[in-house]
């Protein structure tokens, strides 16, 4: 019988729910595309929540600049800084064992050019310990992707609706509608693939166009508001768990009403304190 080496034994058979004890790498992601395996990705911004998702078998966690709206109280992702991403990405890495942690490069951290991108991406790899970085843009960011990848930093790209450009877009409109816009989106996705990206997020793109992009690329597409045919799907965790206040985008499915549950727990605690029933005997030292 052929003996498997420890490294061979730990090769994950599937990205989601696999039992390998080592961290998922970009090579595992490429193998999943070859197998035609779909995979889930969530955002995470702290060690405790990240550990829940890691234990649940989520293979890729994105420390997204969506932390701006979802964690830090900003209105958009634009104000998020490298320091904020670096601190929270380090926490997510500490909270996880198996998941591939991807750190987002925030607005202003790579637009100056490839050298600035390399400096900031290197910081996330060295200080936070992320296994890959993400940046927004297709053709316009291809030079940045190329230098990072040739320097040994895996890159997830992000095309379609790129929220860091909210001021230029004048909001968050669906992208790639109409022949010209669709052709540009295809060129953007191909440009980042050719530059060496290991995956590309397609955000707010018509499902038919996302399916065409997915068929024409050899790297996986990660859809958010891009239909069923992408190789992977990502949601912002606070949207997915019903923690976000107010209206959520059409593409969000809420799997829990966490905001309501947490608020209910806080009210129950407050009522116990006011009514003098907490702490009870079992919570008391003598
Ligand atoms: O910052 C983020 O969370 C993202 C995802 C929505 C893809 O970019």
TrEMBL record:
Biological process annotations from GO: methylation; pantothenate biosynthetic process
Subcellular compartments: Cytoplasm
Binding of Mg(2+), residues: 65, 104, 136
Main subcellular location: cytoplasm
Keyword list, A-Z: Cytoplasm, Magnesium, Metal-binding, Methyltransferase, Pantothenate biosynthesis, Transferase
Catalysed reaction, written as an equation: (6R)-5,10-methylene-5,6,7,8-tetrahydrofolate + 3-methyl-2-oxobutanoate + H2O = 2-dehydropantoate + (6S)-5,6,7,8-tetrahydrofolate
GO MF annotation: an example: 3-methyl-2-oxobutanoate hydroxymethyltransferase activity
Pathway the protein takes part in: Cofactor biosynthesis; (R)-pantothenate biosynthesis; (R)-pantoate from 3-methyl-2-oxobutanoate: step 1/2
EC annotation from Swiss-Prot or TrEMBL: 2.1.2.11
Record family assignment: Belongs to the PanB family.
InterPro entries: Pantoate_hydroxy_MeTrfase, Pyrv/PenolPyrv_kinase-like_dom, Pyrv_kinase-like_dom_sf
Highest taxon of the lineage: Bacteria
Pfam family, one: Pantoate_transf
Cofactor dependency: Mg(2+)
GO cellular component, one term: cytoplasm
Protein name: 3-methyl-2-oxobutanoate hydroxymethyltransferase
Protein purpose: Catalyzes the reversible reaction in which hydroxymethyl group from 5,10-methylenetetrahydrofolate is transferred onto alpha-ketoisovalerate to form ketopantoate.
Family annotation (NCBIfam families): panB (TIGR00222), PRK00311.1 (NF001452)
Note on cofactor: Binds 1 Mg(2+) ion per subunit.
Active site: 203
Subunit structure, as described in the record: Homodecamer; pentamer of dimers.
Binding site for 3-methyl-2-oxobutanoate: 65-66, 104, 134
């Amino acid at each position: 019988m052929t003996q498997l080496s420890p490294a061979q034994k730990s090769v994950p058979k599937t990205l989601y729910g696999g039992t390998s004890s080592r961290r998922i790498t970009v090579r595992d992601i490429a193998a999943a595309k070859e197998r035609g395996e779909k995979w889930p990705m969530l955002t995470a911004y702290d060690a405790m929540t990240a550990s829940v998702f890691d234990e649940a078998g989520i293979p890729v966690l994105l420390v997204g600049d969506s932390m701006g709206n979802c964690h830090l109280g900003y209105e958009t992702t634009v104000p998020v800084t490298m320091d904020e991403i670096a601190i929270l990405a380090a926490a997510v890495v500490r909270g996880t064992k198996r998941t591939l942690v991807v750190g987002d490069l925030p607005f202003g951290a790579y637009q100056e050019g490839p050298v600035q991108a390399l400096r900031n991406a290197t910081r996330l790899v060295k200080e936070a310990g992320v296994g890959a970085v993400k940046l927004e843009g297709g053709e316009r960011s291809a030079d940045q992707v190329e230098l990072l990848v040739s320097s040994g930093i895996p890159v997830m790209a992000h095309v379609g609706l790129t929220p860091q450009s909210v001021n230029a877009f004048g909001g968050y409109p669906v992208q790639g509608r109409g022949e010209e816009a669709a052709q540009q989106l295809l060129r953007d996705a191909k440009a980042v693939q050719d530059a060496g990206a290991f995956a590309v997020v397609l955000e707010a793109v018509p499902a038919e166009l996302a399916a065409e992009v997915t068929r024409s690329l050899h790297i996986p597409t990660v859809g958010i508001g891009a239909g069923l045919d992408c190789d992977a799907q990502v949601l912002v965790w606070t949207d997915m768990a019903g923690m976000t206040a107010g209206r959520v985008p059409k593409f969000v499915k809420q799997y829990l009403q966490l905001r309501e549950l947490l608020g209910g727990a806080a009210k129950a605690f407050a009522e116990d304190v006011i009514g003098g029933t907490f702490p009870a005997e079992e919570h008391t030292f003598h």
